[in-house]
Amino acid sequence: MILPIYGYGETVLRKVGEEIQKDYPHLQETIANMYETMYHACGVGLAAPQVGLAIRLFIVDTTPFADSDEVSKEEAIALDGFKKTFINAKIIKEEGDIWGFNEGCLSIPDVREDVFRHEKITIEYVDENFTKKTEVYEGLIARVIQHEYDHIEGVLFTDHLSILKKKLIGKKLQNIMEGKARPDYKMKFANLKIK
Fewest beta carbons less than 10 Å away: which of 4, 20, 136, 155? Predict the structure, then answer.
């Protein structure tokens, strides 16, 4: 089922997600709905707060980046088919160079800005079967994970921008809160009912 994506200004996007257990109600259905919602909106990641759930769950599928001219052949191979579910994730290390990339967010349609992040991360999490994992990622995969991880910490990519950049996009953010954004997917806006 395709779920509405919560837009900038919704309070759930600012909550730190709570850890969940294996018996979380309808967990597999929630994960399936999140994947369907993400694909419908042409995203590469989606976090539970973006569909109104303040829990530590996010999904990633970087396959669309594999066709980009901006990635090396090596990185395209890594990106193609990289699809994972992260539950109760904790980034335990960020390292390497800090590099910029033009990021967007399904909760903040029509806004894209350069965000600077570490090139390599180590993350602990459990998968959809609650198997514990510790893995290291770098490049665009690490970036997508960091972006979605921010969501379960109540952080948006706009929080990484300078005060000047935030002022420059202020009107666009206000328009999203007022429901004036018109993405090609269902959204729930802060000051309106589901559109």
Answer: 136
How far, in Å, CA of 188 to CA of 176, rounded?
10
Q: What angle do CA 173, 101, 184 make, to 5 degrees?
A: 45
Assess contact for 79 and 66: CB atoms under 8 A: yes
Binding residues for Fe cation: 105, 147, 151
The rounded average pLDDT for each run of 10 residues, N- to C-terminus, in the chain (195 residues) is 97 98 97 98 98 98 88 87 97 97 97 98 98 97 98 98 96 95 92 56
Strands 45-47 and 57-61 turn out to be: antiparallel
Give this prediction's pTM.
0.94
Domains in the chain, ordered, with CATH? 5-188 (3.90.45.10)
The single residue listed with the structure tokens 């992260």 is 86
Task: Please list the alpha-helical segments (H only) found in the chain.
Answer: 27-40, 73-79, 139-152, 163-168, 170-177
pLDDT reported for residue 139: 94
C-alpha to C-alpha distances, 54 to 10, 19, 39, 179, nearest whole angstrom: 12, 9, 21, 22
Could you list the active site residues? Answer: 148
CA distances from 30 to 4, 5, 15, 42, 69 (A): 13, 13, 19, 18, 33
* Burial class of 57 by CB neighbour count within 10 A (0 to 12, 13 to 18, 19+): buried
